[in-house]
Design a protein that fits this description.
Layout lengths: L1 H10 L15 E8 L4 E8 L7 E5 L5 E5 L3 E8 L2 E17 L4 E3 L7 E9 L4 E12 L2 E14 L6 E4 L7 H11 L4 H8 L21 H7 L5
Parallel strand pairs: 6-11
Antiparallel strand pairs: 1-2, 1-5, 2-3, 3-4, 5-6, 6-7, 6-8, 8-9, 9-10, 10-11
Length: 226
């Protein structure tokens, strides 16, 4: 729970936009927190592509420093002229949940590890979007989003992002996945039975990313201890 509370604190300062047109060569300013507790503050970062297993930044002497993505806990990123617009990104394994068998697959596979950006977080669940490219600007943070970008992370498995099954032609498929994965919160899953957390008219609230489900609200409301 402490991890998610930290994420929620950071999230209050974030303002993120999902859109097309990011450039991998662009640079941004970042605070990099390592898993061993070491931090690099206000460094000029060479932005990672979604699959990069290494990241680069320049230190105070303008020397380029390389880090293993696996060693990074998280990164807070912004444009030097717009510090009010920040993104929290993290390198995580993707994992799968099968609602038919109620089984999860958390076997770590290096080829299935990606960079994610945080959209919202509660005490028991956080919602992340997987991206290919990211670019900070004066207007906000823009992304090129991967296929099937939506993921949930639970605090007991902080380095596993569970891909939310999506099918715009069969919304019931998504609902069944959600009801299974979030089954230990019957209040929330009962709301899903009534098409709660769903609004087609607001499906483009995340820029060009079509999403009629309010995964961001589910992450905040989800509480298995109700």
């Amino acid at each position: 729970m402490k991890v998610n509370k930290l994420i929620r604190t950071i999230l209050t300062a974030l303002c993120v936009l999902c859109a097309l047109g990011a450039s991998a060569k662009a640079k941004g300013v970042a605070d990099i927190t390592m898993k061993d507790g070491i931090t690099f503050k206000n460094v000029e970062m060479i932005l990672p592509k979604g699959w990069d297993s290494k990241i680069k930044f320049k230190d105070a002497s303008e020397k380029e420093v390389k880090l293993e993505s696996n060693d990074v806990e998280h990164i807070v990123l912004w444009h030097k002229d717009a510090p009010e617009h920040k993104a929290l990104i993290k390198y995580m394994f993707t994992a799968k949940y099968n609602p038919k068998t109620n089984e999860i697959d958390t076997v770590p596979r290096e080829k299935e590890k990606w960079w994610f950006t945080l959209e919202s977080a509660g005490d028991h669940l956080s919602y992340w979007i997987c991206f290919n490219e990211i670019k900070p600007s004066k207007k906000g943070i823009t992304y090129i989003i991967r296929d099937c970008p939506h993921h949930f992370v639970k605090p007991e498995m902080p380095d596993r992002a569970f891909m939310i099954v999506t099918n715009s032609l069969k919304p019931g498929t998504i609902r069944n996945w959600l009801k299974g994965f979030l089954a230990d919160d019957p209040v929330l899953t009962e709301a899903l039975n009534d098409k709660g957390y769903y609004n087609k008219k607001k499906s483009l609230r995340q820029g060009n990313l079509y999403n009629p489900y309010f995964f961001e609200e589910m992450a905040v409301d989800y509480n298995p201890k109700k």
